[in-house]
Amino acid sequence: MFKRQTSGSVVCVSCGYLVGVKDDRCYHCGRRNPALFGFAPALRSLGHDLGFVPFVTGLCFVMFALTLITGGVRMSGGLLGFLSPSCLSVVRFGGAGALPVFYEGRWWTLLSAGWLHGGLLHIAFNVMWIRQLAPDVGELYGPGRMVIIYTIAGVVGFAASSLAGEYLSFWPPPFGGAGLTVGASAPIFGLMGALVYYGRRTGSRHLHSQAVSMAGMVFIMGLVLPGVDNYAHAGGFLGGYVVADCSIPSSPSRLITSRWRWSCWPYPSSPLWPPLCRPSIPASVATRFSSYA
Ligand SMILES: [Zn+2]
């Protein structure tokens, strides 16, 4: 199945133009080793995202199951709080926010929080967004760049919400930042930022306006609904936009395909996280906030 091609032409992994399988450099985009030693067709058979979407989906659900199994299940908050892991479990597995990052020095939670979720609907909506956006970003930027955009946007988003949770905690919701936050929407907003950038950079008004209205609409819903981590959204968007600027393929002539499609999912809201119970965290701080990203 994962077969190497040794003759003929293949599609350049960066720009999508046909190149010889033994070419050193793509004549169109200049990429070195455009056929990846003949493995480009096999990688391409995994799809535009190189299997990233099923990987993210699977890992998010595995992590969600582990947080539930090891820490117990909460059923608070009606439908949206259905099947929520305990806060302690979320902290153990790497939730981000002012409390873990600034009070426990767990800076690496900026990387892990995007893989955790606070409820069944929360994970369901986020996974649907990833399945919607990641293949499009993978097709426009290439799968490697898409993974980088996704990862860095998550870090920037959770850094923003953790910083806001630490330094802007005196502001009323929804501007106070997050004490504890999880969810894939920071990287999801990064994917939206990358689409907005692509539309702007290539002059595609259609793509640009759709991506802007999609991101704007979801962001505004986050401002209105309680418990949504808006700093993670804004930071993730900014991170995705900036990384897209640094990493856009050198020949962005490949296109905007008809695969671009979108729909509007109501963004998951949730009741605020209950106070976090860790002895090392002052109770006054622990009751400040928390959010779903
Ligand atoms: Zn090329």
Describe the protein's architecture and organization.
There is one protein chain. By secondary structure, the protein is mainly alpha-helical. The protein folds into 2 domains: about 10-45, no CATH class; about 50-290, Rhomboid-like fold (Up-down Bundle). The protein has 11 helices and 6 strands. The strands form 3 sheets. Strands 1-2 form a two-stranded antiparallel sheet. The chain has a two-stranded antiparallel ribbon with strand order 3-4. Strands 5-6 form a two-stranded parallel ribbon. Strand 1 (about 10) and strand 2 form a beta hairpin. Mean pLDDT is about 80; it is low at about 250-290. Zinc ion binds next to loops.
Write the layout of secondary structure elements.
Layout: E1 9-11, E2 18-20, H1 40-44, H2 52-71, E3 73-74, E4 84-85, H3 87-93, H4 98-103, H5 109-112, H6 120-141, H7 143-167, E5 181-182, H8 185-202, H9 205-224, H10 230-247, H11 283-286, E6 291-292
Parallel strand pairs: 5-6
Antiparallel strand pairs: 1-2, 3-4
Helix pairs in contact: 2-3, 2-6, 6-7, 6-8, 7-8, 7-10, 8-9, 8-10, 9-10
This protein binds zinc ion.
Zinc ion (ZN) binds at residues 12, 14-15, 17, 26, 28-29, 31, 34.
